[in-house]
User: Fold these one by one.
Assistant:
Number 1:
Amino acid sequence: MQDLYQQTKGIHDIKVYEVGSPFGLAKRVTQASAQSEEKISFAIIGGHGNSEVINFGKRLYKSDLNGGGAKRLSESFKPNAEIVLASCSVGEDNGIAQKISEQMSGLKIIASKNTATSIDMHVSYDNEGNPHFLPDFGGGEENATISYEEGVRT
């Protein structure tokens, strides 16, 4: 987390929230966006996971994403914002990360397709000041980091 702070220092404020459920996550994201003068530029969301579920204490299943909640939540983010899912195996093809990207249009979802043993976050900025993330999820496996936009692997 210290490296992330150093890389974003003076450009973005970092807020850390702990939640125990998908509803708690949605509530915190919505509140953070409402309390700020701007929409959210990025999020790093962690929890135990696999291709079908992310566990925040209570679980978010891929099948839970068929309603409109994720679409409404995406309105709290700036266009083209990036969300890093810091969870094991959620980036597998046809998994929960891909489903989230289908529901949260206009956002980039970044995830690991393998076990995430540790996360080393690398941030770069484009000419417009937008952050771009390249996490290293550990485990020494190449191509473990996957990204999706609009349900399509990028």
Note: The mean pLDDT is 91.
Number 2:
Amino acid sequence: MMMSTGQNHSQDPARPDMAADTTARRNAAAETDTPACVEFANVSFSRGNTVILDNLTFDLKKGERLGLIGDIGAGKTTLLHIIVGLIKPTSGVIRVLGAPRTIEADFRAVRKRVGLVFQNADDQLFCPTVLEDVAFGPLNLGFSPGEAKSRAAATLARVGMAGFEDRVTYRLSGGEKRLIALATVLAMEPDILLLDEPFNGLDTQAAARVLNLLHTLSQSMMIVSHDQTRLPAVATRQLRLENGRVCQ
């Protein structure tokens, strides 16, 4: 269900149903026996002589929606890339979905179950049409072309983009591209979603559509965002990164 476009949700993003959903998730994640699906233990990463992450320790609980905030260059995007193995940490232990992850084979398995939505949707969309872009992930998972297209069409309907199957991707608006980029990941049915600035550059209507969609999803999430109007409405907990470390 999409938000009404006649309301200014940037001023009041936390509708009662959204607030109840976020509160329920927050309470569930607070249970001491809730398992962690991502764990960092003393993880560090340096680029040249610059320390990006410094003995970082934190976890993401199953069902939690964790907001990551911090200044530009604080290491938020780097952290997401480390989770899926696009960057290797300098030191430390990473566990994803209950298993330690150290070598490329480990992270290939992770990337089948953890979906990363890039900050720039154009980095995620490279096929001629929308349907081809969304079907690309399921094809890589081994689905037949027919199954992949069927799954892609169902996912587009889920994100409110039915009818866009034959549209040329690069001609879409920023908000439409953002939803399609999210659909490319959701079509693979991941257990965890990593979202890098999902509201960045969107107008009020498009941001409201993304916010509402996130509330309909059951996956555990890590959400990097500078948007302190919308992030608190969807995140069950927030962590601030400063100087490569967590400041709660």
Note: Helices lie at 16-30, 76-83, 104-111, 130-140, 145-158, 174-186, 204-216, 231-234.
Number 3:
Amino acid sequence: SGGQFPGTPRLARPGLCSLCSLLFQMHGFFCVISCLLPNRKNNTRVTPSELQPPDSHHLNAAVGWIELGNTAEAKAELARIPASSRKHPDVLETEWRVAAAEKDWASALDTARVLVETDPDNPSGWIHQSYCLHELKRTQEALDLLRPVVEKFSSISTIPYNLACYTCQLGNVEEARKWLGKAIKIRGKNDVKQMALTDPDLRSMWEEIKAL
């Protein structure tokens, strides 16, 4: 499942839309990793300074290798980026993509946590962090960490959507219904409904979702 945050990414910034669609195609991941679909509203965020060559070249090459499904070459390109640039949000995002593509959720979680620490105004880190916890069968932790940032990222439909997934999996259908409603309010019923009806995390709600 996946989509794109508002705005057009710079070349050096891994495209979140391509990330989600790629991971979905490769691994059939459900619940949303990065975001549901382009949101109708915009979140305000200070964009980090761009990486400079040659670091940006290595990063772009790594992204290209990920999109080709070659995580080994992606890692090799990332390894060429010096330690001084390794905590740049674009680099962390790409490292997360590699770990997620390999389903190395423990490593992906470590990277997501660093992304949250270094770029707390980026919703991607918070979403990735909770998604990893969910994949590690730590869904209550995923819920507890993502729920407090709902208002901070009020225009990001992925957050209430993923909270619907987590609460549904924890057996709280009433709360899941509330979060799904919030996602629909942000993104629109048709898009959310289409996504939800292919999402196994929401399987127990499929009948009522069909009736929306």
Note: Confidence is low (pLDDT under 50) at residues 1-29, 34-44.
